[in-house]
């Protein structure tokens, strides 16, 4: 039972080597350029499958984009040039890592703001819990009088002993 | 301070509720990809003709030519929804006098030709995009896709997927009508 569980856990944790979508005829003969092509491809979103990079996507359009990436590398573009080229056509959407600019501040800062907010609430609750002292309300005049009466009778009893 | 603390669950519930309302809105399509092409000039690409169709290919200059808006439809013979959409496009051309250009996407000329011979050719011009490069310039995410290009060569509207069903058709014709008015004024 435990052995089986362990097996399941290991199998889920081992990264599945993604079946390479890059086809042999796409690969560049220059290994340095090919490595850069792979790097750039992993930054670009497959516009059909949407949650995959074009490097691992088998979609036809992803293949065209990979070939295009390689052509531009051969033409001497930098990695940033190629990303820019794609953004000009597909918008920031095509980048798997959203850029950090005025349009995306909300996206980047939201987790931080939420964490601070939650932390603030947590801190206040804890502080109030620690400093909470049970302080009874003041006695009303009636209660005061009654108490006085009791005290007086008891002191009379003391005296009469 | 204390009052703010008591209000925080309500506040949090309201924030989450807002997100859920937004997420559940049937008008919202989470798969919709915003197009950067809208309100910018149509891509400067020159496409050769598809041999045998009898209509020429086109370049950017042909889109700006005659004053009226042009509908640019990206299609392929292997694309099943394109087949269904073809009838809608043909009707638009025949009834409303729409100027329709086609981009034949990653299609062998003989396949495209057979397809057009079978269904008819509503296209005024058809550019061949054998390697799919022009489609990337148009920001294609999948065939079919249809654009309305204004008289000045500006992309005004984009429809992803086939123009089928009343909603899609009426949205498209409304956009086309607007493009025509802008062109004439």
TrEMBL record, chain A:
The record places domain CcmH/CycL/Ccl2/NrfF N-terminal at: 11-151
Which N-terminal residues, if any, form the signal peptide?
1-21
Q: Does the keyword Signal apply?
A: yes
Record carries keyword Transmembrane helix: yes
GO CC annotations on file: plasma membrane
Q: Which Pfam families match?
A: CcmH (PF03918)
The UniProt keyword set, sorted, is: Cytochrome c-type biogenesis, Heme, Iron, Membrane, Metal-binding, Signal, Transmembrane, Transmembrane helix
The UniProt GO MF terms for this protein read: metal ion binding
Can you cite a GO biological process for this protein? Answer: cytochrome complex assembly
Q: Where are the transmembrane segments?
A: 105-126
Job description of the protein: Possible subunit of a heme lyase.
PANTHER family in alphabetical order: CYTOCHROME C-TYPE BIOGENESIS PROTEIN CCMH
Task: State the family named in the UniProt similarity comment for this chain.
Answer: Belongs to the CcmH/CycL/Ccl2/NrfF family.
- Please report the name of this protein according to its UniProt entry: Cytochrome c-type biogenesis protein
Q: Which species expresses this protein natively?
A: Gymnodinialimonas ceratoperidinii
TrEMBL record, chain B:
Q: Which keywords fit this entry according to its UniProt record?
A: Cytochrome c-type biogenesis, Disulfide bond, Redox-active center
The record's GO molecular-function terms, alphabetically, read:
disulfide oxidoreductase activity
CDD domains given for it? TlpA_like_DsbE (cd03010)
Q: Which PROSITE patterns match?
A: THIOREDOXIN_1, THIOREDOXIN_2
Specify one Pfam family.
Redoxin
InterPro entries hit by this protein: Periplasmic_diS_OxRdtase_DsbE, Redoxin, Thioredoxin_CS, Thioredoxin_domain, Thioredoxin_ResA/DsbE_sf
Residue span(s) of domain Thioredoxin: 36-181
BP term (GO), one: cytochrome complex assembly
Subcellular location(s) per record:
Cell envelope
Give me the Gene Ontology terms describing cellular component: outer membrane-bounded periplasmic space
Note the superkingdom of the native organism.
Bacteria
What's the chief localization of this chain?
A: other
**Family, as annotated:** Belongs to the thioredoxin family. DsbE subfamily.
Q: What PANTHER family does the entry give?
A: THIOL:DISULFIDE INTERCHANGE PROTEIN DSBE
Please report the name of this protein according to its UniProt entry: DsbE family thiol:disulfide interchange protein
Native source organism of the sequence? Gymnodinialimonas ceratoperidinii
What lineage is on file?
Bacteria, Pseudomonadati, Pseudomonadota, Alphaproteobacteria, Rhodobacterales
